[in-house]
Write a structure and sequence with these properties.
It contains 9 helices and 11 strands. The protein is of the alpha/beta class. The chain has one domain: Rossmann fold (3-Layer(aba) Sandwich). The protein has a 9-stranded mixed beta sheet, with helices on both faces. A two-stranded parallel ribbon has the order 7-10. The longest helix is centred in the middle third of the chain and has 18 residues. About 3% of the residues have low confidence. GO terms for molecular function: biliverdin reductase [NAD(P)H] activity; riboflavin reductase (NADPH) activity. It comes from Lasiosphaeria hispida. Belongs to the avfA family. InterPro entries: NAD(P)-bd_dom, NAD(P)-bd_dom_sf, Polyketide_Oxido-like.
Length: 245
């Protein structure tokens, strides 16, 4: 069944990979972008024609409000999915002057807007997926021992932000999924099989464990499409997935 999906951070590799697959499958795809040309330059002409671009910032409540309304059905209906991969850009400015609260703040605004729209009579289920990172689990180690110093030194600040985002989702009462990729790489995916560990934060337990070093952004997006967008059994609802090779 066709779905309506709002993408946040769609110019990033993981979310872009999911967006392109969702467009190819015939889903209605909305992308909230600060600079639409940055996304359009990465899409084919057919993809450009199919995607609905909404210009704005993921921290802007008014922009989110406009993007959360499903354009394919009668008014006052929410989108089916929100897939968020927002974070600091991998640029000189993003590295030297990061927004240390970008993920948590974005999720806070999103959830507040969804709650507000429901209060105004908007209907529809919203499944929210947030892309986080391995190394932030409360229930077990999901990174190799050799990478612990690197994660602790280099990624302490962004990981605190990612964990804040996760905590908001878990406590939200919405349907949600968190995806924690291991160290992200560029390039084509499909080189090797993706392994997925599962955590259940409500039961405070690791259901299945997957520990590894890397995974490509392309394969993260493919996994999200196949296991969340196209999901039929609800396996990953209110669950955390750790993805690695």
């Amino acid at each position: 069944m066709p779905k309506t999906i709002l993408f946040l951070g769609a110019t990033g590799g993981c979310v872009l990979s999911t967006l392109r697959r969702s467009l190819a499958a015939g889903h209605t795809c909305i992308a909230l972008c600060r600079t639409p040309s940055s996304l359009l330059s990465k899409l084919t002409p057919a993809e450009q024609a199919a995607v609905h671009i909404s210009q704005g910032n993921a921290h802007d409540a008014a922009a989110l409000r406009a993007a959360l309304s499903d354009p394919s059905v009668p008014p006052h209906t929410l989108v089916d999915y929100v897939i968020s991969g927002i974070g600091n850009p991998v640029t000189k400015e993003g590295v030297l002057h990061p927004d240390v609260d970008v993920c948590r703040k974005g999720m806070e605004v999103l959830l507040e807007v969804v709650a507000g729209l429901r209060g105004e009579g908007f209907t529809g289920r919203v499944r929210v997926l947030g892309i986080s990172s391995t190394g932030v689990s409360d229930f077990g180690r999901d990174i190799p021992i050799a990478m612990i110093p690197l994660y602790k030194v280099m990624l302490h600040v962004p990981h605190k932000d990612k964990k804040g985002m996760e905590d908001l989702l878990v406590a939200s009462g919405e349907e949600w999924t968190v995806v924690r990729p291991s160290w992200l790489t560029n390039g084509e995916g499909g080189v090797t099989d993706v392994r997925a560990g599962m955590e259940d934060p409500e039961r405070k337990e690791v259901v299945t464990k997957a520990v590894g070093y890397t995974i490509s952004r392309e394969d993260v997006g493919k996994w999200i499409f196949e296991n969340v967008v196209e999901e039929v059994d609800g396996k990953w609802v209110k669950r955390i997935a750790s993805l690695t090779y």
